[in-house]
Write a structure and sequence with these properties.
It is a single chain. By secondary structure, the chain is an alpha/beta fold. The chain has a domain of 190 residues: 3-Layer(aba) Sandwich (Rossmann fold), CATH 3.40.50. Helix content is 43%, strand content 14%. The chain has 10 helices and 7 strands. It has a 7-stranded mixed β-sheet, with helices on both faces. Helix 3 links the parallel strand 2 and strand 3. Helix 4 packs across helix 5.
Length: 309
C-alpha cells in the first residue's frame, strides 16, 4: 500500500462516527392543526417528504391540510389540463390515506413560478396560516441549497417568509375585515433533499413505526400518474429473468402491481437508512425550529431549567 493511501485509511479510521440526531417528539400543539405546504401533489410522500410525520400527527389527534401551490400540469404524460385534474385527484387519495382532511390547491402554473411575484404566493400562505392557525407547519427548508427544482425553491422561500410575517399585525391588515388575526406558528419541521451537496443540516429525526412507513409507502405509489408504469414492472422482471433470478413476492402480480410493490420497497429502504444511521428502525430527518427558536437565550434557559407543571 502506498504511503498516502495508508495515511488516508488511518485518518478515516480515526474519524469519529457521525453523531446520531436526537429524536423529536410530537409537540404539544396549541391548536392540534397542521399545514403541509408544497409546490406539487406528491412532494410529501417520497424519500425526502414528510408523510411519516404526517401519520404520526394524525395518530396523535391532529387535523392536517395539504396546500398544493402549483397545478402540476406538466407532471405526467397526458397533457396540461388532464394532468392537472388527475394529479389533484390522486393527491386527495394519497393524503386521505395518511389521514389529512383536505387538499387546498392554489393552482399557480407548474414550472412557471420564477415569473410569479413571490409576494403574491406569500400573501395567500399568510391568509391560510391566519385562517387555520396551525400548531405546526411542514414544508421544504426555506434556506436549503442546491435544489434544482425551481418550484421547490420558490415555494419554500415563500413558506419561510409567510410563517414569519403572519405574526405581524401591520402585514396585510385587511385580513382583519375577514376576522383573521395575526398568528405566530410555534413549530416548523422543514425537510430537504440532501444528496445534492452542502446546505442542509437536519437537527432531529422523527422515529417512525412500521405502520407509519406502510402508509407512507402506499401514498408514494398512489400518485399513479407519475409513479407507476406497467412497462417498468415488466422490464424489471425481464432483467431478473435474464439473470436467472426471481422475486417470490412479485409472483401473481400484474406488471403495474409489481412496480407498485417495488416502489413501496424503495420507501421502506429510505426510512430504514435514516433509522439505521440514528439508532432506530425507521425515521425521517428534519430541520426543526421550535417555539422558542426566535429567542435562543430563552430557549437554552428553558431546556436547562423548565419543569413540567
Amino acid at each position: 500500500m502506498k504511503v498516502f493511501e495508508l495515511i488516508t485509511v488511518l485518518a478515516l479510521a480515526a474519524m469519529p462516527a457521525a453523531a446520531e440526531l436526537p429524536i423529536a417528539d410530537i409537540p404539544p400543539g396549541h391548536t392540534k392543526t397542521f399545514l403541509v405546504i408544497h409546490p406539487h401533489h406528491d412532494d410529501h410522500s417520497w424519500d425526502y417528504g414528510q408523510a411519516g410525520l404526517i401519520t404520526k400527527l394524525v395518530d396523535a389527534g391532529w387535523t392536517g391540510y395539504y396546500i398544493r401551490v402549483s397545478n402540476d400540469e406538466k407532471d405526467g404524460p397526458h397533457g396540461y389540463p388532464h394532468d392537472d385534474m388527475v394529479n389533484l385527484f390522486e393527491a386527495r387519495e394519497a393524503t386521505e390515506n395518511l389521514g389529512i382532511t383536505d387538499v387546498i390547491s392554489l393552482n399557480w402554473r407548474n414550472d412557471y413560478m420564477d415569473a410569479m411575484p413571490i409576494n403574491e404566493i406569500r400573501a395567500q400562505l399568510i391568509l391560510l396560516i391566519r385562517k387555520f392557525r396551525p400548531g405546526l407547519v411542514t414544508s421544504y427548508l426555506p434556506w436549503g441549497h442546491y435544489d434544482r427544482n425551481p418550484d421547490h425553491r420558490k415555494v419554500a422561500t415563500a413558506v419561510g417568509e409567510a410563517v414569519w410575517l403572519a405574526s405581524f399585525a401591520n402585514v396585510h391588515p385587511e385580513h382583519r375585515k375577514l376576522g383573521l388575526r395575526p398568528y405566530r406558528v410555534p413549530n416548523k419541521f422543514y425537510s430537504q433533499r440532501f444528496d445534492y451537496g452542502k446546505g442542509y443540516e437536519p437537527n432531529v429525526i422523527v422515529e417512525l413505526s412500521e405502520s407509519n412507513v406502510r402508509r407512507k409507502a402506499r401514498s408514494y405509489w398512489v400518485h399513479r400518474n407519475v409513479r407507476l408504469s406497467g412497462s417498468t414492472g415488466r422490464r424489471m422482471r425481464a432483467l431478473l429473468k435474464e439473470q436467472g433470478l426471481e422475486i417470490p413476492e412479485l409472483e401473481g402480480l400484474s406488471d403495474i402491481e409489481a412496480h407498485a410493490r417495488m416502489q413501496e420497497w424503495s420507501m421502506y429502504d429510505a426510512a430504514r437508512k435514516v433509522g439505521r444511521e440514528n439508532g432506530v428502525e425507521y425515521g425521517e430527518m428534519f430541520s426543526r425550529l421550535g417555539e422558542w427558536h426566535p429567542w435562543p437565550g430563552l430557549k437554552d434557559y428553558l431546556e436547562s431549567n423548565a419543569v413540567d407543571q
